[in-house]
Specification:
Elements lengths: L14 H35 L4
């Protein structure tokens, strides 16, 4: 039939795999947030050193 998805469904995922993926993503998000905070802190320090920045 036209327009139907011809791909088979993905294999089922276990609860353990899902939890592991959630933890991996949480760790990645924490790293990204820390990077943003570090960048903001660096920008603030630069503004203190160079007021016209």
């Amino acid at each position: 039939m036209a327009g139907e998805n011809s791909h088979p469904p993905p294999p089922p995922i276990t609860l353990q795999d899902a939890i592991a993926e959630i933890r991996r993503l949480q760790t990645k998000m924490a790293s990204v947030e820390k990077g943003k905070a570090d960048k903001e802190l660096g920008t603030r320090k630069m503004k203190l050193l160079i007021p016209n920045l």
